[in-house]
Amino acid sequence: MKPIDATPRSADVRGALCSEIADALQALWERRRPSDQALHQVRKDLKRARAALRLLREAVGEAAYAHENLELRDAARPLARVRDATGALEIVRALLDSADQTARRAKT
C-alpha cells in the first residue's frame, strides 16, 4: 500500500470520507429501529463516502481502495433491501385499501 499523500487536498478528502462514515453510523445509532428517512440518509452518507474514497484511490493504492470500497458497498446493501421491502409493503397496503373500498362500494 502506498502512503497517503499529505497534500491539503488529500487531507480534505480523507476528512470528508471519515465524516460521511461517522454520519452514517450516527444515524443508525440514534434509534433502536431507524426511520425510513434515517436509512435513506445513511445510504446517501455511504454513497458520499465511496465517492470520497474514489478520490483517494491513487493515494491509498488499488488494493486498499478495492477492499474499502467493497466494505462500504456491502455495508449499504442491506439498507437497500430494507428500503425495497418497505416500498413493497406500502404498495400492498395501498392495494388492500383500494380493494377494501371497492368491496364496500359494491355492497351499497
Topology, element by element:
Layout: H1 8-29, H2 36-55, H3 57-60, H4 62-107
Helix pairs in contact: 1-2, 2-4
Describe the structure.
With 108 residues, the protein is mostly helical. It is 85% helix and 0% strand. Helix 1 packs antiparallel against helix 2 and helix 2 packs antiparallel against helix 4. It is elongated. The relative contact order is 0.11.
Features:
108 residues; mainly alpha; 4 helices; elongated
What is the averaged pLDDT score? Answer: 81
Major beta sheet, specifics? none
Nearest-angstrom radius of gyration? Answer: 21 Å
Poorly predicted ranges: none
Beta strand %: under 5%
How many helices? Answer: 4
SS content category: mainly alpha
Helix content: over 70%
Please count the beta strands (DSSP E, at least 2 residues each).
0
Distance between the termini: 74 Å
Q: Which H/E pattern describes the elements?
A: HHHH
Shape assignment: elongated
